[in-house]
Design goal:
This protein is mainly alpha-helical. Strands 1-2-3 form a 3-stranded antiparallel sheet, covered by helices on one side. The chain is built from 9 helices and 3 strands.
């Protein structure tokens, strides 16, 4: 996760937003927004410039100094410290996959002639300007391939197979792929049922 810099008046705060797997448990345990913000700041590797004490000496970030931050500062920082489940661009990709799946399930087999020829030649998924078929994003193709592997796996093997297939992906990319897999599962039916728990 990249570090962010935010200007709050004359103060510049730098921190790393926490992944959902880090901040969601803290949100459940926190007594309130200020308590949650303090817990997030302590884990977000905070640095700042322009914070002085009453004598004009620079104050270093520490649990004690973080606890003395004004409530307004906590309110401004709280939403920024929590990385979203999906980034805006990723949500657009997921929406694009949703449109593709809806079209495929509502109008199966509808492609333009050029796309049909491309499919018959064994080429990649059709996507041309003349075809009414919405484009399939790359993560959608990956999710569909995973869905087919899980569908063909022996009964009960999917739960052990999925972690192996998803290994070594960065958390943000993994969340997008799991969200895409869940969307494919909802649209295409029962064969993937039981894998939704991976998203929790």
């Amino acid at each position: 996760m990249e570090r962010h810099t935010v200007e709050l008046g004359k103060t510049e705060v730098e921190f790393t937003p926490l992944e959902p797997g880090e901040w969601e448990p803290l949100a459940e345990q926190a007594a309130g927004p200020a308590d949650l913000c303090l817990a997030l700041l302590e884990r977000g590797r905070v640095a700042w410039r322009g914070v002085d004490d009453a004598t004009g000496r620079a104050v270093e970030p520490s649990p004690e100094s973080l606890a003395r931050l004004p409530a307004a500062t906590a309110q401004a920082l709280l939403p920024l410290l929590c990385a979203p489940w999906l980034e805006p661009g990723q949500q657009e990709t997921l929406d694009q996959l949703g449109r593709y799946l809806e079209f495929r399930t509502d109008f199966p087999g509808i492609d333009c002639v050029a796309c049909q020829e491309q499919q018959q030649a064994g080429e990649a998924e059709p996507d041309c300007a003349a075809c009414p078929l919405p484009p399939l994003p790359a993560v959608g193709l990956e999710a569909l391939r995973l869905a087919m592997l899980l569908r063909d796996a022996p009964p009960g093997a999917g739960s052990s197979l999925l972690p192996l297939l998803l290994a070594d992906r960065p958390p943000s990319r993994l969340r997008l792929l799991l969200s895409a897999l869940e969307l494919v599962s909802r649209r295409l039916g029962p064969p993937l049922r039981g894998h939704a728990g991976m998203l929790e």
